[in-house]
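Listing S7. Sequence submitted for prediction.
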Amino acid sequence: MSADEAIQTADGGMHELAEATNRLNVDVHPKSEEEYAQSQLTLRAIVTSREAGVIIGKQGKNVADLRDETGVKAGVSKVVPGVHDRVLTVSGNLDAIAKAYGIVAKSLLEGAPAMGMGGIVTANGTHPLRLLISHNQMGTVIGRQGLKIKQIQDYSGVRMVAQKEMLPQSTERIVEVTGTPEGLQKAVWEISKCLIDDEQRGYGTVLYNPVMRAQAGSGALGNGFGGGRSYNRTGSGADFAEPSYTRRPPGDVAPRPPPTHTEDGEELQTQNISIPSDMVGCIIGRQGSKISEIRKSSGARISIAKAPHDETGERMFTITGSAANNEKALYLLYENLEAEKMRRSQAPQDA
C-alpha cells in the first residue's frame, strides 16, 4: 500500500468513526461550567411534613421568596394522610437549582429547632437532603467503583449515601446528602452535572409519589393505574404540576421514531427500564408464565435484552404501548420485584 492509499484509508476510517459518533449522539466536546449553569433540569427531594412547613412558610411566603430569589419553579406535593413524606420539586437552570437547594438547606437548618425536629440538627451545622435520582442514572452519580461519588464528597465536603432499593412503585432511589448549606449547594451542582450528562437515561423514569406509599398500606394498588390523575401531581398549585407519571423528554428534543397509534387512536410510547440480572428470572417466570401474564394484563408489549447493557450487569426491559398500558405494565413489573425481594429477605428466617 502506498503512502497516499494509507492516508486515504485512515481518512476513511476517521470519517466512519465520526459518523458512528454522530449516530450514537455522543457529545465529544465536554460542556463548560457556563453551559452547565444554563442547562435546564428538574431535581426532586423527599422532605418530611415538618420540613415542608419550613420550606413553604406562612401563607407560602418562603417558597415564593425562593422562586423570586433564584428564578426556579418550586413546589411541594400535597399532604397524604398517614404518610410523612412529601416531595419537593425544583425546576430551572442548574445554577438556580443549586442556589435554591442551598437556601432550602439553610432554612431547614435554622427552622428545624422551632419545628421540634430534634435529632436532625447537629452541632456542626449540617443537614441532610434526600434527593430523588432515577435508578437508571444512579451509575453516573456513583461512578465506576464509587469514584464519582467520592470526588463529589471531596469537592463539597458532604457525606453521600445512595440507597440500593427503589422507592415503592417507582424507578427512583434516594441519595442522602449531608453537609452544610454551602456544601450541599456544591454537591447539588455536581450531581446535577451528572444528570445532565446522562439525560437520555432519565427519560421514562417512574416518579415516586407518596400517594403510592399510602395506597400500598391500604391495598388499593390492586385497582391499577387507570384512575385518579392525582398520582401525577408532584407540585402544588396550577403553576407547578407534573404532566405525566413518567419523566419524558422535554418537547421533541430527544430523537424518536415516527409515532404510531393504538386501534383506539392513542399514541404508542416506548420506555426502557433496567432490572438487576439476578431478578430477571422472577419477572419472566417458569417458561415465561409471569411475563406473559404481565403482557396480557397490561396490554403492553415487553421485550427483554438477552445480555446486560453495561458494567452494572442489569438487563434492559423495553415496554411499548399506550400511556395507560405502560404504566400498568410498570406497576406489575415492580410489584413482582417487590414480592421477590420480600421473599428473599424472609428466606433465611424461614430456613
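Caption to Listing S7: primary sequence and predicted C-alpha cells for the chain studied. Confidence is low (pLDDT under 50) at residues 5-28, 113-123, 217-245, 252-259. The first strand starts at residue 40 and ends at 48.
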